[in-house]
């Protein structure tokens, strides 16, 4: 198991999903994806892949995981390993453009 650390931005986005009743389905999908991420970042349902457009604060490789699929503006989770072993930092949770 990995411990998930959330940036302020990721915490804010998760809170917005949780507090908006019209986004409850999306909140549940993101919550499920976060559980999968903590248990196994390579879980097939996440379709995790390296995201090459940007890197973490200290040059870490950033990964994208799917919280939803085949949905307009499907939510994605961007994250990197660290800062310590068995930790994952969630950078942002955002709808796919």
CATH topology, by name, is YaeB-like fold
End-to-end Cα distance? 30 Å
CATH architecture: 2-Layer Sandwich
Q: Got a strand count? A: 5
Beta-strand content estimate: 25-35%
How would you characterize the largest beta sheet?
Answer: 5 strands, mixed
Q: What is the arithmetic mean of pLDDT?
A: 92
Question: Could you describe the 3D structure shown?
Answer:
The chain has 97 residues and is α+β, with helices and mostly antiparallel strands. The protein has one domain: YaeB-like fold (2-Layer Sandwich). 29% of the residues lie in helices and 29% in strands. It is built from two helices and five strands; from the N terminus they run βααββββ. A five-stranded mixed β-sheet has the order 1-5-4-3-2. α1 (8-19) packs across α2. The protein is globular, with a radius of gyration of 13 Å. The termini are far apart.
Give the topology, please.
Elements: E1 3-6, H1 8-19, H2 24-39, E2 49-51, E3 62-66, E4 75-81, E5 87-95
Parallel strand pairs: 1-5
Antiparallel strand pairs: 2-3, 3-4, 4-5
Helix pairs in contact: 1-2
Features:
single chain, 97 residues, alpha+beta, YaeB-like fold, 5-stranded mixed β-sheet, 29% strand
Summarize the structure.
This protein has 97 residues and is α+β, with helices and mostly antiparallel strands. The protein has helices at 8-19, 24-39; strands spanning 3-6, 49-51, 62-66, 75-81, 87-95.
